[in-house]
Write a structure and sequence with these properties.
By secondary structure, the chain is an alpha/beta fold. The chain has 3 domains: 4-172, AICAR transformylase, duplication domain (Cytidine Deaminase, domain 2, 3-Layer(aba) Sandwich), CATH 3.40.140.20; 183-267 and 327-383, 3-Layer(aba) Sandwich (Cytidine Deaminase, domain 2); 277-317. Helix content is 34%, strand content 21%. The protein is built from 13 helices and 15 strands. The strands form 4 sheets. It has a 6-stranded mixed β-sheet with strand order 3-8-7-6-4-5. Helix 1 (39-59) runs antiparallel to helix 7 (212-226), helix 3 runs parallel beside helix 5 and helix 5 (127-134) packs parallel to helix 6 (148-155). It is globular. The two termini are 29 Å apart. The mean pLDDT is 96.
Length: 391
């Protein structure tokens, strides 16, 4: 493995030349097995790899994430995928291994955001996972190993231009990391603090119920937030992030954004969506866009004109009451935040999306107000004491 890898350009085409390299002239921890990953691809790859590696270490389950612009659009561990999710994730015609289940969940939760993603997988890529990746619009994948048959499938994607990166699973970076901004070098200890069981011990609400599935989901939230651009909030259910709000200046806006994504994920399971009369020639990305539009309450009649090219008959949208009635059946969701909630408004928003468990560092001057809000809704809240900012 070389110590340097030249890239076509940097963040934008006008930012050239560009490369990644090791300052100490040691070998890069990656080998490119296909395609030519770009600058943003590798930023996504290295952040995403850390996320899935830590999920596997923490939970002992295969893990996957779908990254876009240095934040996860989805992340999950290998929990069996029920039939209804297989259908809305468009994988009901595929054999799914545990690793493929993890990626189906990670990509399927927000398929519009995952369009053109960079994938990270915690385990050796097998044939079922490769077959799933091969038919989706994606920029590349990073994993510790590839089965020979799986690699052959991936190397055929995009006429051989699909970026396939193999990372040395034993690689550990130096404790100190640096970044140059405007000619000035910043240095800090890298964020190598792992999640531990003690992070979930400080339950501050009147309700103390915290079952094992909730601890698993808090672990998924904890690690997902660690690699999501701050401010960040995520909603987790059944071992997968179902809504991620990244990079917002206001925390309640993060909660609203992530909550809206979680709501759309659950609304996609409504019988009206499952039975949409798609034409047989409509491709999956076009179906994703049509479903998203169908679920928006403010679609105009003019916007619906294109539906004649997508559906065999024009569907009737859900009313506000039907939407609310369906969302009221969503339960046992975990809400995680990378820093404290300064007001109760995020908890009020979370209650609309079935949140039962909350993980946050604590430390706000208004902690008591936030605790009181959780008590009103019967939520269990944990103060981890660990801030998870990522920039």
């Amino acid at each position: 493995m070389p110590s340097s890898l030249s890239l076509r350009y940097g963040t934008n085409p006008q930012q050239s030349p560009a490369r990644v390299f090791m300052r100490n002239n040691s070998n890069l921890p990656i080998t490119v097995l296909g395609g030519s990953p770009g600058y943003i691809n590798l930023l996504d790859a290295f952040n995403a790899w850390q996320l899935v590696r830590e999920l596997k270490q923490a939970l002992g389950l295969p893990a996957a994430t779908s990254f876009k612009h240095v934040s996860p659009s989805g992340a999950a561990v290998a929990v069996p995928v029920p039939d209804i999710l297989k259908k809305i994730y468009f994988v009901d015609d595929l054999e799914l291994s545990p690793l493929a289940e993890a990626y189906a969940r990670a990509r399927g939760v927000d398929r519009m955001s995952s369009f053109g993603d960079f994938i990270a997988l915690s385990d050796e890529v097998d044939v079922p996972t490769a077959r799933l990746i091969a038919r989706e619009v994606s920029d590349g994948v990073i994993a510790p190993a590839y089965q020979a048959a799986a690699l052959e499938i991936l190397q055929a994607k995009k006429q051989g231009k699909y970026a396939i990166v193999q990372i040395d699973p034993a690689y550990e970076p130096e404790q100190s990391e640096t970044r140059d901004v405007f000619g000035v070098t910043f240095e800090q200890r890298r964020h190598d603090r792992p999640v531990t069981e003690a992070d979930f011990a400080n339950i501050v609400t009147a309700g103390k119920t915290l079952p094992q599935p909730a601890i698993r989901d808090m672990t998924v939230a904890w690690i997902t937030l660690k690699y999501t651009q701050s401010n960040s909030v995520c909603y987790v259910r059944d071992g997968q992030a179902i809504g991620v709000g990244a990079g917002q200046q206001s925390r309640v806006h993060c909660a609203r954004l992530a909550g809206a994504k979680a709501d759309l994920w659950y609304l996609r399971q409504h019988p009206a969506v499952l039975n949409l009369p798609f034409r047989t020639d409509i491709k999956r990305p076009d179906r994703d866009n049509a479903i998203d539009q169908f679920l928006q309450p403010d679609v105009t009649e003019a916007e619906k004109t294109n539906w004649k090219n997508i559906f065999t008959s024009l569907p009737v949208q859900l009313s506000g009451g039907e939407r609310r009635a369906w969302l009221d059946t969503l339960q046992d969701v975990t809400l995680g935040s990378d820093a404290f909630f300064p007001f109760r408004d995020s908890i009020d928003r979370a209650a609309k999306s079935g949140v039962r468990y909350v993980l946050q560092p604590g430390g706000s001057a208004r902690d008591e107000d936030v605790i009181a809000a959780c008590d009103e809704y019967g939520m269990t809240m944990v103060f981890s004491g660990v801030r998870l900012f990522h920039h």
